[in-house]
Amino acid sequence: MNFSTLETGTATERRLMVDQPRTISFLGEDLRIYATPRLVDDIEQTCLDYLLTFLDEGENTVGAAVDIRHVGATLLGMSVSIVATVTRIEGRSVTFNVEVRDDVELVATAAHTRVVVNVAKLRSRVQAKAEAAAAGEVEDGVLSPSQFAASR
């Protein structure tokens, strides 16, 4: 992880078009608007792409927290701007404040935290967890504390 050039206050921007897969369908075709889960995904991807430029080989980031206020309806076909500003760097954790606007208004504000991980170590932990689950080494659907510790 090479965060020597990453500083609080630095920002990244992503512009995108709200296409049909990013919209809700349950209110009918005339109310195809930006779906909150897709908005969260776009925020996470914006922050991930930015942090990738600061990582060493074998590292990546995973989302650790999202706090979002989705306050405006963005119609199918409108463009949005996602601006993510680094507000805190603490060890391997980076927090962003995010503002999303469409062509007319503020759409959302969010705080999003990502944590830098070693991909090989994460893969090993996840594999150990999957093996424990496959072997039936779970009680009531939960790994025992010793099994969980061994997977870390």
Number of strands: 7
- Provide the gyration radius in Å: 19 Å
What is the CATH topology assignment?
Thiol Ester Dehydrase, Chain A
Rounded mean pLDDT score: 91
User: Which percent range fits the helix content?
Assistant: 25-40%
Q: How many separate domains make up the residues?
A: 1
- As residue ranges, the low-confidence spans are none
What's the tally of helices?
Answer: 3
User: Per the principal axes of the C-alpha atoms, what is the gross shape?
Assistant: flat
What characteristics describe this protein?
3 helices, flat, alpha+beta, 7 strands, HotDog_dom_sf, LysR family transcriptional regulator, Thiol Ester Dehydrase, Chain A, 152 residues, FlK
Structural overview:
The chain is flat. With 152 residues, it is an alpha+beta fold. The strands form 2 sheets. A 5-stranded antiparallel β-sheet has the order 1-3-4-5-2. The protein has a two-stranded antiparallel ribbon with strand order 6-7. Helix 2 (119-134) runs antiparallel to helix 3. Strand 6 (138-139) and strand 7 form a beta hairpin. It has helices at residues 36-52, 119-134, 145-151; strands at residues 11-17, 59-70, 79-90, 93-102, 106-118, 138-139, 142-143. The model has no long low-confidence stretch (mean pLDDT 91). It has one domain (3-135): Roll (Thiol Ester Dehydrase, Chain A), CATH 3.10.129. The chain has 3 helices and 7 strands; from the N terminus they run E-H-E-E-E-E-H-E-E-H. CoA binds at residue 63. This is LysR family transcriptional regulator. Residues 18-119 form the Fluoroacetyl-CoA-specific thioesterase-like domain.
